[in-house]
Amino acid sequence: MFESLSERLERSFKILKGQGKITEINVAETLKDVRKALLDADVNYKVAKTFTDDVKTKALGQNVLLAVKPQEMMVKIVHDELARLMGGENVALNVKSQAGQPAIILMSGLQGSGKTTFSGKLANMLKSKQGKNPLLVACDVYRPAAIEQLRVLGEQIKVPVYSEIENKNPIEIAQNAIAQAKREGRDVVIIDTAGRLAVDEQMMTEIAAIKAAINPQEILFVVDSMTGQDAVNTAKEFNDRLDFTGVVLTKLDGDTRGGAALSIRSVVEKPIKFVGTGEKMEAIDLFHPARMADRILGMGDIVSLVERAQEQFDEEEARKLSKKIAKNQFDLNDFYNQIQQIKKMGNIKELASMIPGVGKALKDVDIDDNSFKGIEAIIQSMTNEERVNPAIINGSRKNRISKGSGRSIVEVNRLLKQFSDMQKMLKGVQQLSKNPKLMRRR
User: Which of 4-8, 80-84, 140-144, 173-177 has the highest mean pLDDT?
Assistant: First the structure.
């Protein structure tokens, strides 16, 4: 995500490296390169020009502190302007339900933008993180696969899906679904609507009619971030007709240049509320402009990484695990469970990119999300006794585990060696924490 833009901006700032102070000449040279980088990332031309003009004004008005290098000062100014350009602050989703009336969220966007998948992700997030009781509604009456797709997603996240196979009137379906949600005491209704391959009058008239009939609290425009500048133009068309309340950027884990994220907020003046970062139902993040600016400038995003970890790791389980480590009882069952928790956090390469400096180092490294499969297969082929006490695994047991997992003896030995080394390291850490004098000697 934003890798190309990050690299170009980094090269732009190097123009100021070694300079004693910020001047009109070196700022102009730097910002000329910054503007090119933004345009190459498919940022709207007017947005890019306004952005660099604002940065120039602020840069030339700065009194650079002796302790701060001009290059560092420029990075700080660009960071703040990027955050401002993308909205400044996160804008929360309005899901407050009235007395007996559920909160209604209407999804809009072009076909293929990821509306249906995002509807499932949003329902899953509201259910698991906010304790909501959502209902998904299939109002795409033109694409039978959309109804089936939403039904499959609903089963996966255990959220009911309302649909009417014979009825081809999306307004009636939406109204009937809301009535059912009231009867069942559901507090959120998420309505997935039809998309088209291009903006057309029929689609716009239909979704505007749905909006008028159900009066939703939130209208989210879902856009594929890989479509670049076209996404901005489409957003403007939809906003003119629907006056939507927020934007969702999908497929930010793909090979996107980032132009949509940087342009949409300025062009339609509506907040980006969510980003989709993968296919899994958990791959949804609140959009934080300042954190996104950090990532664009290669500074990582530790706050989001910690938040994801907190969402997946149970405090009580963490305490139990800590006690097991303290007693040197951390076994392969615990190791296996930790792998499952890490996998739930999302794409491994994306997680690594949130650590400052790591994203750049891993730019050309291919990290397969299936990297854990071999390890999981080996551990699953062990008996519980072997997982608790790997020391009993002799030659014949290794042979059985190898055949059962479909992995070589070499891979089995490597895992056992790595786990043994991990146990020694954890034991050493515990000894140091119990005896601070040992740390001082080192």
Answer: 173-177
Contact 109, 246 (CB under 8 A): no
Q: Is residue 92 part of a domain?
A: no
- List CB contacts of 5: < 8 A, sequence separation 6 or more: 37, 38, 40, 41, 257, 258, 296
Q: Are 270 and 313 in contact (CB under 8 A)?
A: no
pLDDT tens across 290-315, in order? 777 776 766 544 455 555 555 555 66
Phi and psi dihedrals of 107, rounded to 5?
A: -95, 135
Could you give the residue ranges of the DSSP H alpha helices within 383-408? 384-388, 395-405
- Residue 140 to residue 400: CA distance in whole angstroms: 52
Residue 185 three-state SS: coil
Q: How many domains does the chain have?
A: 3
Domain membership flag for residue 98: no
Domain ranges, residue 326: 307-441
Look up tokens 């996104």; give the residue: 292
Q: How many CB atoms lie within 10 A of CB 16?
A: 22
CA–CA separation, 259 and 440 (whole Å): 51
Q: What confidence tens digit (pLDDT) does each residue in 259-272 have?
A: 666 777 777 888 88
3-state secondary structure of 338: helix
